[in-house]
Each structure stands twice: as C-alpha cells, then as structure tokens.
Automatic annotation (TrEMBL):
Protein name (record): Phosphatidylinositol kinase
InterPro entries per record: CHP03843
Domain of life of the source: Bacteria
Length: 262
C-alpha cells in the first residue's frame, strides 16, 4: 500500500500536540495493512478564522498545494490527504524530517550585514534589538529556486524559514494553509532570484501544470477545496509566469515578507 493510501484509509492514533503551531496540529500515527506512517493531523475544528482567507479551510488549502505540486511535478510537498480523524475532518500529511524541524534549517541565515555567507543571496537588511543590523539571506540552491516557483504558483502568503526541511538531498516544504487566494498575497523569504529567468526544469513543470488545468482534471480535483475564482487565478498565475519567464520582483504596495521570518 502506498503512503497516500495509508494516510487516507488507516486508523489515526494521536501521539501529541505540536504546541508551537498557530493552529491545532497533532503528531499522529496512521496504521493500515501492517504499515505505519507518522503524520501531522490538522483538524478543521482547530483552525482560527482569518479575515483575509474567508473561504474554505486551511486544511483544504494544504491539500490543494499538494495536488498542484503533484500535477506539475514538484516534489517538495509531503503526501497529503483530507479525511476524517479523531477530532473530525482535517488534513493529514506525512511527517518529514526530525522531530524538531528547526534543527534541519541551514538554507536561511541572519548574519551581520558585512558578513554575508558565501553562496547565499541577500534579501533584506534588518535592525534587530539585540543583534543590531543583520542581513537575511538564503542559499543559492536550485532546490530552493524550484520551491520559489511553486510558491509563486500557489500564491503562498507565509513562506517562513521554519517551513523548510532538509532530508539528505531532498528539500521538503510544509505549512501551506494560507495559499491559493485569488488576490496577490505572496509573502516569502525566497526573493533572491527576483527578476532572474525561471529555471528550465520549472518551465517544464509550469507547462505540465497548465495542461492539467486546461483539460479540467486538476480543476475538478481542486473544486472541493478552492473557489472557482481561486482556480481561475491559479491558472492566470501559471500563464503569466510562462509568458514572462522570470521570477517576479517584490511588490511595492504591501509587505513582501512573512512575519516572523522563522
């Protein structure tokens, strides 16, 4: 049985709560057909209302991100399903990386402005109360660049450093509850390639995603969790990226960064 099937059909047993999560998030075991998968279960009943995301659910947007990534061929998002659980319907996503995800962060840095690490791209200078002026930077890493393209596609409003998890050569990305809004919401720490050409591999992923949207198959999968306007906006973002062929630059009329950054 594949992991997605285990997550969708297995018995869910709660191990404990992730106390630093902004919404209710539970670490669970999912058992099916003599297989056990460790996962994160985010019940809809534990979601806080967000005035700027009035439609749908955070759990539904977690699933939408996984479906979009899978359709295009991005491999950053762990297997995710929407199902019933001990506290009602919610998203269940395979657990990736160590128990403490921040232990895996090595791709994003805060350094003194004069000491930018080699191989890192500066994003913004900040004045911190205890540390003085520092520079936020991220690695010039093709895995991150590909994820940055996916974030543009899903209109990710909250790409923080703690959402990045390295597992050997694999880069995982988690926490996609505030994505896929019809209006521009992109807030990310991954601005290092602003204005640069898109990677060729990601142009291919965008083309596959555009085809899945054009034939209606992906739109049908997304219909239970996104509005029609949100699916149309998704298609428009993909088309614009393909036409322009470059990473966007940070917007001038609103904050381009999440807060906190981690």
């Amino acid at each position: 049985m594949d992991i997605e099937s285990v997550l969708a059909t297995g018995e869910v047993e709660v191990e404990g709560q992730l106390v630093e999560a902004s919404n209710l998030a539970l670490r669970v075991w999912v058992d099916a057909a003599d297989e056990r998968v460790t996962a994160v279960y985010k019940p809809i009943r534990g979601e806080r209302d967000l005035w700027d995301f009035p439609d749908g659910t955070l759990a539904g947007r977690e699933l939408a991100t996984y479906l979009i990534a899978r359709a295009g061929g991005w491999t950053h998002i762990p297997e995710t399903v929407l199902r019933d659980g001990p506290l009602g319907p919610g998203s269940v996503q395979r657990w990736v990386g160590p128990l403490e995800p921040e232990d895996a962060i090595s791709l994003v840095r805060l350094d003194p402005v004069a000491d930018l690490a080699e191989g890192f791209l500066p994003i913004v200078a900040l004045e911190l109360q205890d540390d003085g002026p520092v520079a936020l930077s991220h690695a010039d890493d093709p895995r991150l660049a590909s994820l940055a393209v996916l974030d543009i596609v899903i209109n990710n409003a909250d790409r923080k450093g703690s959402h990045l998890i390295e597992d050997g050569d694999q880069l995982w990305a988690i926490d996609h509850g505030i994505t896929c809004h019809a209006e521009p919401k992109l807030r990310t720490i991954l601005w290092g390639w602003a204005g640069d050409p898109l990677p060729e591999d990601d142009r291919g992923r965008l083309q596959r995603l555009a085809a899945a949207l054009a034939d209606g198959s992906l739109a049908a999968d997304l219909a239970p969790v996104l509005t029609e306007d949100e699916v149309d906006a998704l298609s428009n973002r993909v088309d614009r990226l393909l036409q322009r062929g470059t990473f966007p630059v940070p917007p001038a009329g609103r904050t381009p960064l999440p807060w906190p950054l981690w």
